[in-house]
Amino acid sequence: xxxxxxxxxxxxxxxxxxxxxxxxxxxxxxxxxxxxxxxxxxxxxxxxxxxxxxxxxxxxxxxxxxxxxxxxxxxxxxxxxxxxxxxxxxxxxxxxxxxxxxxxxxxxxxxxxxxxxxxxxxxxxxxxxxxxxxxxxxxxxxxxxxxxxxxxxxxxxxxxxxxxxxxxxxxxxxxxxxxxxxxxxxxxxxxxxxxxxxxxxxxxxxxxxxxxxxxxxxxxxxxxxxxxxxxxxxxxxxxxxxxxxxxxxxxxxxxxxxxxxxxxxxxxxxxxxxxxxxxxxxxxxxxxxxxxxxxxxxxxxxxxxxxxxxxxxxxxxxxxxxxxxxxxxxxxxxxxxxxxxxxxxxxxxxxxxxxxxxxxxxxxxxxxxxxxxxxxxxxxxxxxxxxxxxxxxxxxxxxxxxxxxxxxxxxxxxxxxxxxxxxxxxxxxxxxxxxxxxxxxxxxxxxxxxxxxxxxxxxxxxxxxxxxxxxxxxxxxxxxxxxxxxxxxxxxxxxxxxxxxxxxxxxxxxxxxxxxxxxxxxxxxxxxxxxxxxxx
Length: 536
What we know:
Blueprint (H helix, E strand, L loop, with lengths): L3 H21 L3 H11 L6 H6 L13 E4 L6 E4 L4 H12 L2 H7 L7 H10 L8 H11 L3 H14 L21 H6 L18 E6 L2 E5 L2 E8 L2 E3 L5 E3 L5 E7 L8 E8 L5 E12 L6 E2 L4 E5 L11 E8 L5 E4 L1 H11 L5 E4 L2 E2 L23 H9 L5 H5 L5 H21 L4 H14 L1 E3 L9 E6 L5 E6 L4 E5 L2 H11 L5 H41 L1
Parallel strand pairs: 3-15
Antiparallel strand pairs: 1-2, 3-6, 4-5, 6-13, 7-12, 8-9, 8-11, 9-10, 10-12, 10-13, 13-14, 15-16, 17-18, 18-19, 19-20
Helix pairs in contact: 1-2, 1-4, 1-8, 2-7, 5-6, 6-7, 11-14, 13-15
């Protein structure tokens, strides 16, 4: 059975894959399976920033993004929408290198197609075919092949682009009922909605009020809003009968692409709600919007942002026109109550909405009434949330390796937290940073180094970054090194010994990097000297 993120991807893009099957004869199941794997259920960086769901390299109408793959800073096509990515992917598979293996296959022969495109050089992994087939059969994607085959037979239609032109808007906007649900356009909850859709809680990465300026940590600023962790999410109107009063498409401003919605109150006052750093805007100034309606897509635009998130701000405007910033947690708590949404806004293990909900009033409850959450509790909550970057990395195939890396990462995080002389609040922040950004500071394990950081990449690989005070070294851990780390973490020795052994391994890896770079530098210098002698 497909997990939630995978099923959401299937629901949203099944029709896209079926359309490609009608146009090119490629099994919809194969296209969907490739999209699931290569875009990490639509959550990969390429999918979110470039609508590129299949890792196609090059430029698309001159547009591209840079990403590291076989080489640093390679060009990957940037599409205006996901439909273009699906269409372009089909054209790739129409190349002769693949068609000589699949050209005579039936459009519903997903096993044959998976094997054929592998022979054509689409992928080098030895288990590629079994991986594709496993995703197809594990999620019953072959049913979409059957649906298209039956439709074509019933309507007497032929496969091919001539008989199946792209439908106007079909590849650029959702059309099926399940797709509408994924964008938040179904409104079963009534007159109110949270700004993003979450099963249990929104993850707040920065609350309202004073904070260190993320662009300059030496400065303090007042944060007029809350930052909500997002990952290419639809951002939603919070109430009925709102008016879009401002739309900013300029990505060079501090807030980047921004939408402001205004709600009128019976007493003549107004409430304005701001959505900043969007990647896409789906409304225009003057539009009337309803609760749960999609306004755009979260992103990372603007000059004052350090990563993707939704900056959500609220302004109250009195009947006399006086404006005042308010804590969005108070506004969302009121919406939560009136709409009976039963949602939370968690910041380091604390529900910010609960501060305003005790006894049904918008006043902070006594500390004794607030649920006490430990760092370990918070870790468990985050791991099961929609926003756990680590959980997302484990959803692709080849799960055994990814599960092993995740387990290693989590054990090392706990080991690191135990030795650090930090307050409970600081440990909560450490957990949030680790789970959201997939990185752990293990400098405490390596007293001979200035710093050491372990990071899990989108691909699921573990990367060690160290600094000896003179130079920074980046090393992708090999399978053998990961295995040794896992053995140390799983051994029966005490925690202090584990940290000592891990520190020794990290130091040895760094020393090896230093020696390798020094050798290369010496060889380069010798070659340069020889060339100079030859010129003389």
